[in-house]
Amino acid sequence: MSLCSRRVLTPLLFLYAVSTADAQSLFVGENSGSIKRYNATTGAFEGNFVPSSATPRGIAFGPDGNLYVAENAAGVVRKYNGQTGGLLASISTGNSPTGLAFSADGSLYVSSYTNSNIRKVNLISNTSTLFANLFEANGIAVAPDGEVYATSFGGRSLNRFNSAGSLLGNTTITGLGYGLTLGTDNNVYVSNTSSVLKFNRTTLSSSIFISTGSGGLSSPFDVDFGYDGNLYVSSGGNGSVKRYNGSTGAFINNFVNPNSGGLTTPVFMAFGPAPVPAPSALAVFLIGGVPGIILLRRRRKQSL
User: Fold this and answer.
1) I want to staple 113 with a disulfide (CB 3.0 to 4.6 A). Which of 28, 77, 98, 140 is the partner?
2) Do residues 24 and 257 touch, judged by C-beta distance below 8 A?
3) pLDDT, tens digit, for every residue of 28-65?
């Protein structure tokens, strides 16, 4: 799911967004079996968030703030504490999971390369139902209106489904379809064998957004928009995560340098949710005026 869709709507919310930006993290699945954590501002390695994971593929943060990981070899989705990385649950999805995406109502959509289908999981009732059949289903994303977009690896296609699972259209992908994400510009961004393509959500017409080899890009696997509005791409061929201008596709830098923290073959990735900061004096004033400032000072004195 694209993070740049989280736009701030008021000056007060903007204040909170700025104050929490430095605390963000980028979580990257390592093909050899771990989930690594990097500072979302500097790209510095922060540690192995999940030290051991059986062939991690799709990763996504749920509405509960926890991290969900598709463990393809184990045939389950693991639920990890979004703060500590501790294992909370193993979820059976009825397929061998590859890609993960949450919808606005909290449902989890799970694509399966092995089973060639997409299943919809209700995490409240712990039930799984078939959403759609798709040959070697791989990357997946759910739009705010409920439409689902998924790549077919072997079928070399991008597919558009309505919220009921009916196919609305598809189009050919040059190369093999891996990860994908939705932009706020009504486009779908898809990584293929060597580049990143941009598709119009409605017409599925395409263009090249990031050219082959741009910035040393090699075997791109997943794509995701960061909080800064730029597009991040896991470069599986050289163990790095690269950052590109979210509007033009121009290369900016190696955000995560090759082999940082032992990263050798990055696969799927996700940005973590924003932590809730303690209210600043200005924020309290905007909400409660002078009485709010007095209350804040009293609480701070009591804590000393």
Assistant:
1) 98
2) no
3) 999 988 999 999 999 999 999 998 877 899 999 999 99
Q: Does residue 249 sit in helix, strand or coil?
A: coil
Geometric angle at alpha carbon 70, from 170 and 153, rounded to 5°:
30
- Using the predicted structure, report yes or no on whether residue 285 has a pLDDT greater than 50: no
Q: Which CATH architecture has domain 23-273?
A: 6 Propeller (2.120)
C-alpha closest to that of 60 among 269, 222, 232, 233: 269
Whole-angstrom Cα distance, residue 121 to residue 58? 15
Q: Which residue has 């007095």 as its token pair?
A: 294
Phi/psi for 158 (5° steps) reads -105, 130
Residue with tokens 């193993």: 90
3-state class of 119 per DSSP? strand
Query: Which is it for the CA torsion 260, 262, 265, 270, positive or negative?
Result: negative
Q: What is the pLDDT of residues 220-263, one digit of tens each?
A: 999 999 999 999 999 999 999 999 999 999 999 999 999 999 99
| Bridge partner residues of 161 (DSSP) | 148, 167
Give the tokens for residue 265.
Answer: 């073959």
Instruction: Identify the CA nearest to 196 among candidates 186, 206, 184, 185.
Output: 206
**Size of the chain, expressed as the number of residues it contains:** 304
Q: b/e per residue, 146-167, with b = 16+ CB within 10 A?
A: ebbbbbbbebbbbbbbebeeee
10-17 mean pLDDT:
35
| H-helix or E-strand spanning residue 302 | helix 281-302
- What are the angstrom distances between the C-alpha of 108 and each of 50, 97, 101, 139? 21, 11, 6, 14
Residue 296: both structure tokens together? 């804040």
111 contacts 98 by C-beta, under 8 angstroms: yes
